Amino acid sequence: MKIPNRGDYIQPASQNIAHILELWLTEKLSNIGETIPILEEYPQISAESIMTKLKETVSSLNGLEKVLINIRAGHVYLLHMIGDVVVMDQNCERFFQQFPLFVNVSIKVQEHSPSVRHNTCQVLVAVEHVTMKGENRNIPLSCRFSHQQHQSFDGAFTNTRVASSPDGQTFCLLEELATR
């Protein structure tokens, strides 16, 4: 996903989600201080803030059965290099001077069958901090989803499953959200 998102390379069903993630990332970058946003906070914080954004705009999930949002973030110098120069688009150089991080966003959706009416959507948000060049790991087998059930103020129950890698660099959050 590029920022700003022009929507010309995203499947139509995920356009609203891409816009929500663009707003989330813009907010994160506008709150820069002594730390690099996203990269220097726990992946759990990023995953939970994305899930909160989706809950605030739950109508964007109408018609969707499953959503996977995968975010990989790392220092810009972990990107591909030729010699001592990072290979990047010229339009990105100014951005990287101000925010020395990359954020790779992948969105996958599965739509509900049009003949069946559903009022929930399973959402999986996975956030990974890339700490080594060429690193692209899967969640280790030692990570298992833990199950939590929460009751909201309106009395509805939400099922939450979380998994985290032993080193804390990968965090996954799975929730079933009511869409109506």
Key structural traits:
8 strands; 20% helix; single chain; two-stranded antiparallel sheet; alpha+beta
Structure description:
The chain has 180 residues and is of the alpha+beta class. It has one domain. Helices cover 20% and strands 34% of the residues. The protein contains 3 helices and 8 strands. The chain has helices at residues 15-30, 43-56, 93-98; strands spanning 64-75, 81-82, 85-86, 101-111, 120-130, 146-151, 157-164, 170-178. The strands form 2 sheets. Strands 4-1-5-8-7-6 form a 6-stranded mixed beta sheet, with helices on one face. It has a two-stranded antiparallel sheet with strand order 2-3. A hairpin with a 2-residue loop joins strand 2 (81-82) and strand 3. Helix 1 (15-30) packs across helix 2. The protein is globular. Mean pLDDT is 74; it is low at 1-6, 134-145 and 150-157.
What are the low-pLDDT stretches, counting only 5+ consecutive residues below 50? 1-6, 134-145, 150-157
Going by helix content, strand content and strand pairing, the class is alpha+beta
In order across it, which strands form the biggest sheet? 4-1-5-8-7-6
Order of helices and strands: HHEEEHEEEEE
Number of domains: 1
SSE map:
Blueprint: H1 15-30, H2 43-56, E1 64-75, E2 81-82, E3 85-86, H3 93-98, E4 101-111, E5 120-130, E6 146-151, E7 157-164, E8 170-178
Parallel strand pairs: 1-5
Antiparallel strand pairs: 1-4, 2-3, 5-8, 6-7, 7-8
Helix pairs in contact: 1-2
